[in-house]
C-alpha cells in the first residue's frame, strides 16, 4: 500500500451525512481527502467538510469522473438515493472504469442499506446488490459494507419532535423487531478501517451497532436520557413515505419506504438477525483504540430538544 503522503482518498458522497463522516474521519487521521461535488458553485462546495479538496464530477459523466480520479489511491463510494436499475448501473460502470484507469488500490462501497442474502423485488436492495457485484468485479480491491438502519434517522424532526413533546417514538419498524442500530460515525470508522487496514481486501461485511434493541428498548433508552416515559409506536409506512417525500423527493422516498415494508415481513425479520456489531467491531478493531459507540452513549450525547424545534 502507498505511504501516507502518497495516498489520496476520494469520497463519493462527501457532501452527505454518511460520506461526510468518512471524510472527517480520514482528515482526523491525517489523510489527504478529495470530495466529489456536482458543481463549483459556493453551494456545491460549502456542503463538503472543511479540509476536503473539491472535485467537480457527475456520476453520469464518465469524462468528469476520470479527471476527478486523477492521482487517487483510495475511494469511498456512497451512491445517491436513486433506485432506477439502469441509472445506478451507469453510475457504477463509470466509477469502476475511472477507478481502474487511475490505478486505485482500495475501494469501499457503502450499500447504504442492508442487502438480504436472497433476491427480492425491492429496487433499493437489488440495485445495491448489483452495484456491489460490479465493483467487486472491476479489478479494484473492493470491500462492501452493508449497514441496516442508522441512529441519525431519529434526528428527523418528525421523529424527534414527537419524542420530546409527546413522549412517543414513531418509526416504521415493528415494535418487537431487534435491530442493530448504527451511527454514522461508527460506519465511518468501519469505512476508514476497511480503506486503510492491511489484509482487508474483498468481501462483504454487514455492519451494525454494538447494541441490538427492539423498538420498546430503544424508546426506554431515549426516555432515560430525557427523564420521561417514551412509548414506541410502529409508524404506518405509507405515512412515513409521505413525510419523507418532503425531504428527499417522491422517488427517493418510495425507494426507502419499500425497504421498511420488506423488513416488516417474516423474511425481513429473519434477515435483521444477520446484522450485529460483531463483524463491524472486528473490522474497526484493527485500529487500536477505536470502539463502536454504545447506544446509551449515543442517545445521551444527542441534542434532542434542538432536533425537536426544527420545522419542515
3D architecture notes:
The protein is an alpha/beta fold and 312 residues long. Strand 2, helix 2 and strand 3 (53-56) form a beta-alpha-beta unit. The chain is built from 14 helices and 9 strands. The model has no long low-confidence stretch (mean pLDDT 92). The protein has a single domain (4-308), classed as 3-Layer(aba) Sandwich (Rossmann fold), CATH 3.40.50. The chain has a 7-stranded parallel beta sheet, sandwiched between helices. It has helices spanning 17-28, 42-46, 62-68, 85-102, 123-136, 157-166, 184-196, 215-226, 237-248, 250-263, 266-272, 277-284, 295-300, 304-308, and strands at residues 9-12, 33-37, 53-56, 74-78, 106-110, 142-147, 168-171, 204-207, 231-234. Helix 7 packs across helix 12 (277-284) and helix 9 runs antiparallel to helix 10 (250-263). It is globular, with a radius of gyration of 19 Å.
Compact overview of the structure:
The protein is an alpha/beta fold and 312 residues long. It has one domain: NAD(P)-binding Rossmann-like Domain (Rossmann fold).
Amino acid at each position: 500500500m502507498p505511504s501516507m503522503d502518497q495516498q489520496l482518498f476520494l469520497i463519493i458522497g462527501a457532501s452527505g451525512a454518511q460520506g461526510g463522516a468518512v471524510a472527517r474521519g480520514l482528515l482526523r487521521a491525517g489523510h489527504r481527502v478529495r470530495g466529489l461535488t456536482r458543481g463549483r458553485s459556493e453551494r456545491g462546495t460549502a456542503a463538503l467538510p472543511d479540509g476536503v479538496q473539491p472535485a467537480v464530477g457527475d456520476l453520469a459523466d464518465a469524462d468528469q469522473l476520470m479527471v476527478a480520479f486523477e492521482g487517487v489511491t483510495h475511494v469511498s463510494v456512497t451512491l445517491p438515493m436513486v433506485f432506477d436499475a439502469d441509472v445506478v448501473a451507469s453510475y457504477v460502470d463509470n466509477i469502476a472504469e475511472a477507478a481502474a484507469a487511475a490505478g486505485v488500490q482500495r475501494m469501499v462501497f457503502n450499500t447504504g442499506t442492508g442487502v438480504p442474502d436472497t433476491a427480492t423485488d425491492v429496487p433499493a436492495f437489488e440495485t445495491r446488490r448489483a452495484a456491489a457485484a460490479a465493483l467487486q468485479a472491476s479489478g479494484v480491491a473492493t470491500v462492501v459494507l452493508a449497514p441496516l438502519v442508522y441512529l441519525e434517522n431519529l434526528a428527523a424532526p418528525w421523529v424527534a419532535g414527537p419524542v420530546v413533546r409527546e413522549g412517543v417514538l414513531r418509526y416504521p419498524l415493528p415494535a418487537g423487531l431487534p435491530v442493530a442500530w448504527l451511527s454514522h460515525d461508527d460506519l465511518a470508522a468501519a469505512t476508514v478501517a476497511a480503506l486503510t487496514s492491511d489484509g482487508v481486501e474483498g468481501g462483504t461485511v454487514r455492519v451494525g451497532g454494538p447494541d441490538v434493541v427492539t423498538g420498546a428498548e430503544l424508546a426506554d433508552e431515549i426516555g432515560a436520557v430525557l427523564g420521561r416515559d417514551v412509548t414506541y409506536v410502529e409508524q404506518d409506512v405509507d405515512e412515513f413515505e409521505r413525510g419523507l417525500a418532503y425531504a428527499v423527493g417522491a422517488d427517493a422516498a418510495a425507494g426507502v419506504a419499500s425497504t421498511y415494508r420488506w423488513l416488516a415481513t417474516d423474511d425481513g425479520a429473519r434477515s435483521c438477525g444477520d446484522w450485529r456489531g460483531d463483524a463491524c467491531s472486528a473490522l474497526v478493531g484493527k485500529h487500536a483504540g477505536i470502539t463502536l459507540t454504545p447506544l446509551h452513549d449515543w442517545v445521551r450525547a444527542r441534542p434532542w430538544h434542538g432536533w425537536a424545534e426544527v420545522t419542515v
